[in-house]
Amino acid sequence: MDTTPHPAPPDDRGRLAALLRLWPFTRPYRGLVALTFTAALLATLTQLAVPLLTAAVVDGPIAAGDRSGLLPLLALALLFGVAEAALFFLRRWAMNRSSLRIERDLRDALYQRLQRLPVAFHDRWGSGQLLSRATTDISTVRRFVGFAAVFLAVNLITCVVVLVLLLVTYWPLGLAVLVTTVPLTFLGLRWERRYNIQSRQVQDQQGELTTDVEEAVQGIRVVKALGRSGLVFDRYDAKATVLRRMQLERVRTLALLWCIFELHPQVTLAVILVGGAVAVNTGALTVGGLVGFVALFTVLLWPILSLGFLFAFAQETASACDRIGELLDEPVTVTDRPGVRSAAIGTPARLRLEGVGFAYPGSADPVLSGIDLDVAPGETVALVGATGSGKTTLTALVGRLYDVTAGRVTLDGVDVRDLPLAQLRSVVSTAFEDATLFSMSVRENVTLGRTDATDAEVDEALRVAQAEFVHDLPWGLATRIGEQGLSLSGGQRQRLALARAVLGRPSVLILDDPLSALDVHTEALVEQALRKVLAETTALVVAHRPSTVLLADRVALLSGGRITAIGRHSDLLAEVPEYRDLLAQDSELADAGFAEVAS
Amino acid sequence: MSQPADRGAPPAPSPDTAHNWRGVATEDTEELSVGAGVFLRDRSRRLLGELLSPHRRALWGLLSVITGQNIAWLAGPFLIGVGIDVAVPALIDGDAGPLAWVTGAMLAAAAVDTVLRFVFLSWSGRIGQAVLLRLRRRVFTHVQRLPLSFHERYTSGKTISRLTSDVEAIEELFDEGLDNLVTAVFSVLTIGVVLVVLDPPLGVVALLGFPALFWVARWFQRNSTAAYRRTRQTIAALIVQFTETFGGIRAVQAFRREPRNDELYAVLNEDNRQAHDRAFWLIAVFIPAVTLIGNLVTVAVLGYGALRVMDGALAVGTLVSFLLYLRRFFDPLQDVAMFYNSYQSATAALEKLSGVLEEVPTVPEPTDPVPLPEARGELVFDGMRFGYTDRVVLPLLDLHVPAGQTVALVGATGAGKSTLARLAARFYDPTTGAVRLDGVPLTLLSDADLRRAVVMVTQESFLFSGTVADNIAFGRPGAGRAEIEAAARAIGAHEFIAALPAGYDTDVSKRGGRLSAGQRQLVSFARAFLADPAVLILDEATSSLDVPSERLVQHALQTLLADRTALIIAHRLSTVEIADRALVMADGLIVEDGSPAELVAGTGRFADLHRAWADSLV
Description:
A: 3 domains; four-stranded antiparallel β-sheet; 20 helices; B: alpha/beta; ABC transporter transmembrane region fold; six-stranded mixed β-sheet; 22 helices; elongated
């Protein structure tokens, strides 16, 4: 998305700083992280014991034919062998314990933060983008903390220790081994980097493919209705073919990488054999020494080979940290002012908008400006306006889903920003245009804002919204609905959302085109029931239809972000041409009798 | 399971078992991956077989390559042993020949090993990618072909994950797992043989570790099957909670849902941690156990081998190669544990994919279609019934719509209006009877002819990523800009499109290009207008328009419908006014039939509806 801030590719210092952002999250588990590291280091070092002991056996008891000398060495080898396994276990245990908990904490923290970021932020970010940060990126961090970070340190230490041991055992051969590791390290780092870039490209392309799949599946009705399966398939196929090409390039790099990994140790072994044989010949090295040398060298391989991957992984983690940090750093702009105290808000309350203006963050053009509106307690005002005139935005200002950028909104004379958010949002209740239901029981969906509602209150709300169909669901109010449950029709969803909004007598009720998905019959029934609720609460109703407008005492006409007319429906119809244009049925199309009623 | 009790999961049978759909019904049940070890279910195995069958010869080639590579790879330790036993003593005797020979052999083996490894990796990669591309194409095409009834009950989320994460799970296996697995299995087998051949008594000692190894592996496989399945479930639950929260963030914040969500999410997150902890715990036990067994065997071999060397029954070099082989024997086993998860995910994915592929496209294209290049638009529903297995929706329907007539369908929700419309668009086929277009049953029309003649505009006006112009052109690919604009003008959408940041080139998925529900509806009307069908079906297509837009559309419809057949479903009676004929439906039957004016004047249901509607405006 073009509006998403993209951090510039940071230099290595930036990468380190990004990684250090994690530091606070490791605090409760630092002991465990240290244990992981220690166990990993000791385990790697105990691996050295077996080769060294093998050498000792060859040179000692075997050379001397000393059977009794064998036993202590074997006992030692056994000890180290068991210790190695125990340390492996210890490392993994400590790693699981710490890294999975760090992952969990980070995920909780991110979720909690995101929930409190203003709606304006969520308008800017798709939930898909947030999800990939909360899952993939955080898992990357977990693997880094538990694995890559530890082994980056351990492997560097191991390399040094083993090289020193090799040099000590027989320095000319040790030097030869050291020299052979130079091209290996160089090629490894280079190709592993390339491999990583290619993997990233593959991931991006998979994302592209996902978009196509989503559209083809979600738009299946359109595709079928117009018979465009071929077109959709061609689009998908072109991307899938590109993905295959990218994958093949990546596989090629991987194959090259593996070749180096295969070739290098074998060539080096040949070098060691020749050099070792010569050394044994000259007496500079024992046979056991040669055996130990070979064995030590095999221990060195994985630490060298893994360095490239580990560095690449560290970089990937730094990018992941940047992406997570970006969200954690996002300011919570809609929040309680310091020292706010709850105030007495009546039911119904007086709602006033005084010189209210609003512009989306980063946009110079205000969506709303100079709005003055006084809604008396118990009054219902309908908002009418063409698409894009700012009706929905205006309603969102009352419950502070957005904060005004000019003027103020008051409830019973108190600025909504001077009320605690929790109180404000419990006295203001909204039914949104798109009826959002969650994967949970009907009851929990309806009592979303008022978990303490009694059964009688819930039944009452369901009756008002004509949503009593829920009693006929397989498990009644306990039936799970939404994404992971029973799917409901648009009209059913809308009625449940309405029930949710009217539950528990809010001081201010906001209904955003609440009846759009209902059939004529149900609509009439809902209107009837709704009138009683509206009589007892202050309400703003966004309306597109005359029938909805008639729920209101007064109507405000929004045009170009301003209220251009306000008054009774019949008066506006008579006096304001723009209003007539918006709400009157076209007399040319409607039958004469109906046109008469509407005007 | 510490699922929060109030998430509404009914204690009684889950909905999935209530509907025993062939193919996908068993998807979420527990016993799914019981055999998910090496034993794929028949269905998955068949799918795998089908996918691999074009590559049968290449697979034999691959097998010989990996055999050759393994032999070259196994030569290394053996040659080291020979070097120590033969070449070093020979050198001490002043003969450098054997050393040169052994070193040369080592380098040659290394070269062969490397080249074959490269061939194996890139070749198997190519085959893997070919298989995946075929799988992607096949599943995608199949899903497109499946009837709407499938999509409605299977939900888009599930279908999307079949096509994305499941295919990717198989991709991942090909990617990191498969060559590891093949190499590991192969080298374990060959090394086992080599060990016994190299020195039978030592080989027997080494093989003593086998039963323990087998037992540990079996334990791991049994437990991790369940453990990993659980991790997939917990992460899925976490993702649902996450996407629902931020998809519905306005409702979340407006209803102060944040603290409760924090709790729910924390529980799911902790569940997920515990599930992963369990799976990782199994690895944390398995890998050290393999290491321990390996080390014990190594010590035993070292001790017994040393004794045999002292007895002169064994050369030192042989002992060294033996120990090196032993290491190569145990290491791959640990690798196998590391990617067991991706192997299992792939198995589960294959199982689900084969389920979807087994679904029958119940609304297939005819093999021998009747050509209908120019439809007039006469629609006949002839003795038609339609129902699902458990209930009848349309008991018996006979209806004749002459070409060019505009018919409005009216009735309460569930009266069967949409079903009728969908049958006319052949989204479903009737259970008995037929729907005929110009005398030809829809089932005998090719998809191309049918879709050119009949176009349906639905309530949800879906827009594809791309520009506004692209979306309109979806109605007729290849249409020029002038035709696209003409369609938009005809429908009254030109003004708002021209006012968008980049006009017709505005990307609808970008900010600034996001259209309101009404605007999207207008775009899909323009799309249908451009398609220029003989029969146009509007399924509550004007419901999300505001009055001015609806008026525009109705003006447009009058010209648009003048020379074509139309079925219009609308719950706004104003839409009905433009119809030549109105049908009132109740319980799947047509209960009233006449011109709107006649019906309003009458005493039937339509008159009642009309009155109720008019009353609601007072």
